[in-house]
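Subject: for your reference before the review

Hello V.,

The reviewers asked for a structural picture of the protein, and I figured it would be easier to keep everything in one thread rather than splitting it across files. Below is the amino acid sequence we used in the manuscript, unchanged from the supplementary table.
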Amino acid sequence: MRDKKFFKPSVIKQWVIVVYESERRFPRRAAEEMAFGFCQGAVSVGMQVMDSHPVIVYENGQGVIGEGRQGVLGSEKSPPNLMVVVLPEGGNQIYTAVKHFGESLPLSALKSNKCSRAKPQYWANVMLKLNVKLGGINSVLGEMNAALNDPGHPTIVMGADVNHPAPGADGRPSFAALVSSVDSTTAKYISESRVQMGRVEMIEDLENMCKAAIGKMFPQNPGDADKTGNCQAGTTIDEGLGHPTEFDYYQLTHGGLLGTSRPAHYSVIYDENKFSADAMQSLSFALCHVYARATRSVSIPAPVYYADIVCARAKNHYTPGTDLDLSETATQVSHAEGQLQAFRAGYKPLHANMANLIFLFPES
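And here is what came back from the structure prediction:
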């Protein structure tokens, strides 16, 4: 990220820091230094920070997280557009509770041992995730794919995934997610998620999820190897390995950092656009370059990555302390349908304030 700027940097108008670590372990001076490093990191990638001296509040992580959050926001004259939370080491339970009550506000959760005296690269990585949460765009393709950038035929790109409970966790639901692009650069995505019957791979409510997504659309030889010995990113094989009659191919889209890189297998299920093989392969390769958390291409298209992240964080849509058993070891067998209805009833959809922002990333 050195000397690199975001394509569309966001603006932090007003923000607040909430520390769930004890003041003895994370003193106020450390919090102030952290805020300074945060601001420097934001400015280094082109973001604007209107308030360089945010309010710093210490909260008891053993108390009621939701009440603490409401108290912090209620004390501000105008609501902040960002909350930065400092978590203690091993504060996973606090993290889950904080993420639930942060559904209505962009939130960045940082571990106290990582953000204290952090180096510029750490803050650059934090900003990669934070910028898109605030409505910015990190990067776009230098040369847009013709299939994506035709003003006369706008294109929406979707990614879907289903997350299943662990083996033996009978009665627990699966979570389905759909992410959809909302701009011509395919760099900005919104998401929809649903609760459905456990271990069902077919997305039950896909039609309504697609309708919701459309309704949110916005205008607008060794010498050939890379430095690790792998094939160059973009290598595509569509003969010899694929299905004898179906439209499929293998494509390596990312440069390996260590070990052997693994290509992704693409199968075209339905294509009403009648793309040629070259056009389809160029499209999938292009989509591997717009993943917001990376400055290089990744192994699978960004919308598929995003859908997987939305599924993984679906458990945060339940109120902490709920009677619903979300543990991986739950083994209740009876009344599976009734339990599914309970999970659906308790599932909190994405807050309206966050509906048009990319609300996908787990924190550092």
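For the response letter, the relevant points are probably these. The longest helix spans residues 28-44. The chain is about 25% helix and 15% strand.

Happy to draft the paragraph if you're swamped.

O.
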